[in-house]
Amino acid sequence: MTQFMDEFGPGIACVFGLVVGILMIVFRRKFSRLSWEMNSEEKIEPDAVPPFIYSPAWAAFIGGGFITFGLITGVLGLVGVIGR
Length: 84
Description:
Elements (H helix, E strand, L loop, with lengths): L1 H25 L1 H12 L16 H24 L5
Helix pairs in contact: 1-3, 2-3
């Protein structure tokens, strides 16, 4: 198992980071709405504007962080800095 993770771990992390990041950017409005509904105790109207902390921009920013993580992990794994 250790040899498998040494060889394929960076690739798995790269794909995970890219997929999660792209999905968070594509579905940023739904993600921000879901997080707002999960953290709210009252009923939220469908046409209500989310507060700044639940803004879709934050979901896109976090998605960009996942993409950056995936790219850095993939490049470092490809170069051989990690996973060997």
